[in-house]
Amino acid sequence: MTTTPWSSRFEEGLHPAIAAFNASIGFDIELIEYDLTGSVAHAQMLAHTGILSAAEAEAIVTGLEQIRSEWRSGQFLPAIDQEDVHFAVERRLVAIVGEVGKKLHTARSRNDQVNTDLRLWQRARIDAIAERLLDFERVLLDLAKAHVETLIPGYTHLQRAQPVSLAHHLLAYVEMAERDRSRLEEVRARTNICPLGSGALAGTVLPIDRHYTARLLGFAGVSENSLDAVSDRDFAVEFLAALSLIAVHLSRLAEEMVLWASQEFRFVLLTDRCATGSSLMPQKKNPDVPELVRGKSGRVFGHLLAMLTTLKGLPLAYNKDLQEDKEALFDAARTIEASVEAMTILMREGIDFQSDRLSAAVGEDFSNATDAADYLVRRGVPFRSAYGIIGAVVKHCLGAGLLLRELPIDEWQRFHPAFEADLYAAIAPETVVAARNSYGGTGFEQVRAALARAEARLQAA
Ligand code: ARG
């Protein structure tokens, strides 16, 4: 019969299938470094408050650090009968340091311990993902710098609308990533609160110093209510929500790359480093990377909904349901970290913009129609009337198989006498883009200013 720290109250051992069902060691081993760090701080606090002697705490800390090196060198591999990472560490500690190891869990419960571990883990993941987002933004910014004057069709309803600077299009994703980073920062602030010292649910009779432990662990403060502290997973929900939005943004960019790499668009060519072939069709080159990023977003959204559902019916305080938080969190963080990295590589070396295709595209449509109307507006025609006139010109051109720039000036003048030869320059793609010089618009001057602002932000980050 496997003994656990709680065995003394029981007569019989656990059914093996139930032991496996109950155990979290198979996945919560991911918390081990944070569990060790939390325990070291807890032991130091116990010595600081005189609950343990300095020698006892030192023995415990030395033992914990030995477990850390055993873990790092692959020697510490707890089996399924250890229930969870917290028991596994405690048992190994007692094996290493003897009786004194049994003092580590003084004034502590796994309920406040696991919440502390999770917060430390999440804080580290937030920092790592924010760092990856920064790399992603830097790559987009470099790409944007090279393409201020590259024009690309801008769409609404996936119908050609108005041409834009390619840099402007790329900078849109930099804005999204910036918001994603600041969202993570806000989640970090609420994550960085120490629940340790809340005990199982009600606090402890021992004279602990919660602020001391919190400081050692780099937390910005301590939780206010022990019942709330051990059952709160808001921080995890917020993290999953922030990750979900990152997934949304990556997925939109991924979708555009899939689209742009198609024969129908051919705005980008996939390089060999980031594309894959087909098992059957020799001509294929597939955009697996953006497709996977698009596909993985669903997993992350699923974890968010799973976490909310797990929490919504729980009475205070800790319930074992909460053990379900971990796989969702771990998988979501792993998925997003890998997706940001993959998209960073894709944007850096996985695609080649096809400038000939892009410039041909912006010259071959009616996306300068708004500008023909604005030409009349500048000559005193009310916008709604100008809109009507250009609508009629477009209809005429579609019937005649002509583009706006191909319609002779005398024909233009039949629609309105204010049209003159300078019209052609006014509706050329470069002019049209340059003219959208309102703050935040695609005009080259605006895009250069936006690039400078984005660069300054990234340098300060
Ligand atoms: N493995 C548990 C979890 O992840 C640790 C906390 C267990 N606490 C308890 N009272 N059984 O939630």
UniProtKB/TrEMBL annotation:
The UniProt entry's GO biological process terms, in alphabetical order, are: L-arginine biosynthetic process via ornithine
The record's listing under InterPro entries reads: Arg_succ_lyase_C, Argininosuccinate_lyase, Fumarase/histidase_N, Fumarate_lyase_CS, Fumarate_lyase_fam, Fumarate_lyase_N, L-Aspartase-like
Q: Which GO terms describe its molecular function?
A: argininosuccinate lyase activity
Enzyme class label: lyase
Pathway assigned in UniProt: Amino-acid biosynthesis; L-arginine biosynthesis; L-arginine from L-ornithine and carbamoyl phosphate: step 3/3
Reaction(s) this enzyme catalyzes, per UniProt: 2-(N(omega)-L-arginino)succinate = fumarate + L-arginine
The source's superkingdom equals Bacteria
Q: Indicate whether Disulfide bond appears among the record's keywords.
A: no
Domain Fumarate lyase N-terminal per the UniProt entry, residue ranges: 15-302
Which protein family is it in?
A: Belongs to the lyase 1 family. Argininosuccinate lyase subfamily.
What is the protein's given name? Argininosuccinate lyase
Annotated source species: Gloeobacter kilaueensis (strain ATCC BAA-2537 / CCAP 1431/1 / ULC 316 / JS1)
Could you read off the lineage of the organism from its UniProt record? Bacteria, Bacillati, Cyanobacteriota, Cyanophyceae, Gloeobacterales
Q: Which gene encodes it?
A: argH
